[in-house]
Amino acid sequence: MRMAVRFVVPTVSVAKVRDSLPRYLEAARRHLLQIVTRHERDAVAFLALEDLQELLGSNHFETAVAIHEGEATVALPQFSIIGIGEDVDTALDDAAGKLREYALQYQQRFEFYKHTDRRKLYPLVMRFLATPEDQQRNLLLEPEETEAVTVLA
Fold first, then answer.
1. What is the mean pLDDT of each run of 10 residues along the chain (153 residues)?
2. Strand 34-38 to strand 146-150: parallel, antiparallel, or no bridges (unpaired)?
3. Among the four 30, 40, 54, 60, which has the fewest Cβ within 10 Å?
């Protein structure tokens, strides 16, 4: 027989949350972590998106930017992704679009990826997906992880 897991923070059933969702949303907005369970087995964390973003904020993307005459590349070596464009902006858009596609596939196929060497990318994928689409490309240019190289032809 499986014993119920106990947490220090409140644990509530899905049925109870469903009946009083606004109350639990307000608690999450106030930075209170809650564990929601179904049949005392399946458990998920209920927390504000802002808190999730802060928790994932220390995970940074490695980005290499190369500028050639009339062409730029933005490489994301952790993901084996290369964005190409006429300038850094279009190369960055290309890289962000490819990463968006990869992240959505990763999320849908997580049961597969968690058994591969790509498991370690989970925090980065979640950080990318938990960021509004119009801000995602900014994640790729965080100063400490970006390396820029200008190549003259």
1. 65 86 90 85 86 94 93 97 97 98 97 96 97 95 65 53
2. unpaired
3. 30
Question: What is the per-residue pLDDT across 77-120, written as a single tens digit (0 to 9) for each?
Answer: 999 999 999 999 999 999 999 999 999 999 999 999 999 999 99
3 Ramachandran zone, left/alpha/beta (phi>0; psi -120 to 50): beta
Distance in Å from the first CA to the final CA of the chain: 70
Q: What is the DSSP string of the chain?
A: -PPPP--SS-EEEHHHHHHTHHHHHHHHHTT--EEEEETTTEEEEE--HHHHHHHHTT----EEEEEETTEEEEEETTTTEEEEESSHHHHHHHHHHHHHHHHHHHHHTHHHHTTSGGGGGHHHHHHHHTS-GGGHHHHTT-GGGEEEEE---
Per the CB < 8 A criterion, the answer to whether 147 and 63 are in contact is: yes
Residue bearing tokens 């464009």: 85
Cα Dmax for the chain: 70
